[in-house]
Design goal:
Elements (H helix, E strand, L loop, with lengths): L10 E3 L5 E4 L6 H17 L4 E7 L6 H6 L3 E6 L2 E7 L13 E9 L5 E7 L14 E3 L6 H13 L3 E16 L2 E12 L11 E8 H6 L1 H4 L2 H14 L6 E7 L5 E7 L2 H10 L2
Parallel strand pairs: 2-3, 6-10
Antiparallel strand pairs: 1-2, 3-5, 4-5, 6-8, 7-11, 9-10, 12-13
Pfam families: NUDIX, Nudix_hydro
Family: Belongs to the Nudix hydrolase family.
Protein name: Nudix hydrolase 7-like
C-alpha cells in the first residue's frame, strides 16, 4: 500500500526568494522532523533560497529536530526563536541578526546655565560620586527624539522637549559583543521640580554646566570631555546640531529625519510647508 504523503509545514514566501515556516500547533519531535524534511525537499524543488522557522517558545521541544536538519539560530525574542537554513549550493547571503543597539544621553539645560545631572545607584557609575547626564536605551519601535524625553522623565521626573541631536558615537563589542550607537541630545526643560527614580537613581540635581565639565571624570576621559565641550560650544551659539522632522517613505511609513539645522535647512523646511 502506498505510504501516506506527508504534508509540508505551512509557509509564507518572503520578498527575497525565501520562505518563512510557522509552527502554530504542538507536535511530536519525530513527526515534526519528518514534516520538516518534506518541507525542505519541497521548497528546494521550488527554487527557494532561505528557509526560516518561526518557533514559538511553547514549541521549544522542536529545536533539536530543526538543528539536526541543518538549521541554525538567527535570533530570539521573548516569545519565539527564529532559525534559518540556506538551501542552494551558493554562498549564503541571508542577512545577519541586528548588529547594534541604540542609547541616548540628555543634555538638559535651564536658563541659569545649569545642566540636569544624576548619580546612578548601580552599574558602572554606581557609588562613584560621578554626576552624569541621564542616559538610557531606546526601546524597539521608539524614535530617538521620544526615547530621550521618556528617559529623562523616568529618571528625574522632569518634563522636557527635544531640541536636537548634538553628537553621536559608535562603539563595538559593547553589549553581548554587539555594537552600540549613542546619541547625545539637547532638551529644553518644561518643568524643574526633580523627583528621582528610586530604583536606579541615587540623586539628581541642577548643576552649573561649567562644574559638570570640570569633574575629573569628564576631564580625564577623552570622549566625555569632547562631549562636554560640544555642549558648551552649543550654549555659546557656535554649534548647530541635528534637528528632527517627521517625513514619510515611499511606502507611506512615517519616520524622523535628523538634519543639520542651518540656514539651508530653514529653506528646506519652508519649502516643505508651502
Amino acid at each position: 500500500m502506498e505510504s501516506e504523503k506527508i504534508e509540508v509545514i505551512s509557509a509564507e514566501e518572503d520578498k527575497h526568494g525565501g520562505v518563512i515556516l510557522t509552527v502554530n500547533k504542538s507536535m511530536d519531535s519525530l513527526f515534526f522532523a519528518s514534516k520538516l524534511k518534506a518541507s525542505m525537499s519541497h521548497w528546494k524543488q521550488q527554487g527557494k533560497k532561505g528557509m526560516w522557522i518561526n518557533l514559538p517558545i511553547q514549541h521549544s521541544n522542536l529545536v533539536d529536530s530543526a538543528v539536526k536538519a541543518g538549521f541554525r539560530y538567527h535570533h530570539a525574542e521573548p516569545d519565539y526563536l527564529m532559525l534559518v537554513y540556506w538551501i542552494p549550493d551558493t554562498p549564503d547571503t541571508l542577512p545577519a541578526n541586528a548588529s547594534h543597539r541604540v542609547g541616548v544621553g540628555a543634555f538638559v539645560i535651564n536658563s541659569k546655565r545649569e545642566v540636569l545631572v544624576v548619580q546612578e545607584s548601580d552599574g558602572r557609575f554606581g557609588g562613584t560620586g560621578v554626576w552624569k547626564m541621564p542616559t538610557g536605551a531606546v526601546d524597539e519601535g521608539e524614535d530617538i527624539c521620544n526615547a530621550i524625553v521618556r528617559e529623562v522623565k523616568e529618571e528625574t521626573g522632569i518634563e522636557t522637549e527635544f531640541v536636537e541631536v548634538l553628537a553621536f558615537r559608535q562603539s563595538h563589542e559593547s553589549f553581548f559583543q554587539k555594537s552600540d550607537l549613542f546619541f547625545v541630545c539637547m532638551l529644553q526643560p518644561r518643568s524643574f521640580d526633580i523627583q528621582s527614580q528610586a530604583s536606579e537613581i541615587e540623586a539628581a540635581k541642577w548643576m552649573p554646566v561649567e562644574d559638570y565639565a570640570a569633574q575629573p571624570f569628564v576631564q580625564e576621559n577623552e570622549l566625555f570631555d569632547f562631549i562636554a565641550k560640544i555642549c558648551l560650544t552649543k550654549l555659546d551659539g557656535n554649534y548647530t546640531g541635528f534637528s528632527s522632522i517627521c517625513t514619510s517613505t515611499s511606502s507611506g511609513k512615517r519616520t524622523y529625519l535628523y538634519f543639520n539645522n542651518d540656514t539651508i535647512a530653514s529653506h528646506l523646511l519652508a519649502s516643505k510647508h508651502e
